[in-house]
Write a structure and sequence with these properties.
Layout (H helix, E strand, L loop, with lengths): L5 E5 L2 E5 L4 H4 L32 E7 L2 E4 L3 E4 L2 E3 L2 E4 L4 E6 L7 E6 L8 H5 L17 H6 L8 E2 L12 E4 L7 E5 L7 E5 L7 E6 L1
Parallel strand pairs: 3-8, 7-14
Antiparallel strand pairs: 1-2, 3-6, 4-5, 8-12, 9-11, 9-13, 10-11, 13-14
Length: 211
């Protein structure tokens, strides 16, 4: 059972709305189905150890998945970025791709740290995720967002200089299609930390440390 988040209207534009991921909605239930924990949880922090730098010219972030089930208690979806924290040289290439099975579309979208969704409510109505609606064929056309086989037709968004350097820059990849990988130059200056999110699955978050 894979729980998917789909693009629908939030306000007057085609944006993201989430079907609540079960791992965020409540703590595991007891055998009688009653919840035993709080209904609002915070997304965990990124790994504290940055990945060591390899080649100056190319680094990779992958989208990985997986599920965990406990009968009559919970189902957990493990969509995540691997690594969650990556260190790159300014001017190097970052490649975004799938790390395992390809049954979900993803983005790697730069957001200010303060705007990253942190609670279940913020994830389910991800207002900052609107910044990536430029991936849609018609960003303001509700019908297109609801009926298109895939919401993505523009695969790279540049809000600043070409490459990844500012909020709104975004890479998209497509499950089972021609766009299973996407690359961009990390054009941010040394010393910059870029925070990113998947706008389709906003609990997927990470950061790029630029040196």
């Amino acid at each position: 059972m894979t729980i998917k988040l789909t693009w629908i209207a939030a306000a007057l534009v085609a944006v993201i709305a989430a079907t609540v991921p079960t791992r965020l909605s409540a703590s595991p239930a007891s055998d009688d189905g009653a919840g035993t924990g709080p209904t609002t949880q915070r997304v965990g922090d990124w790994p504290s150890t940055a990945t060591p730098i390899g080649s100056r010219h190319s680094r990779q972030v992958k989208a990985r998945g997986g599920e965990t089930y406990r009968i009559n208690q919970y189902a957990q979806e493990h969509l995540r970025f691997v690594p969650g924290t990556i260190t790159v040289d300014s001017g190097s290439t970052l490649t975004f791709s799938f790390g395992d099975k390809e049954d979900e579309d993803h983005t790697l979208t730069i957001l200010p740290k303060a705007e990253l969704p942190r609670t279940a409510a913020q994830i389910n109505q991800c207002e900052p995720c609107k910044i990536a609606r430029g991936h849609l064929k018609n960003p303001n056309d509700l019908a297109d967002a609801l009926t298109a086989k895939t919401p993505f037709v523009h695969w790279t968004l540049d809000k600043g200089r070409p490459g990844l350097d500012t909020a709104g820059d975004s890479l998209a990849i497509e499950s089972g299609g021609a766009h299973r990988t996407n690359s961009a130059i990390v054009s941010a200056a040394p010393g910059t930390v870029l925070y990113f999110v998947c706008v389709v699955h906003p609990w997927m978050q990470g950061k790029i440390i630029v040196r």
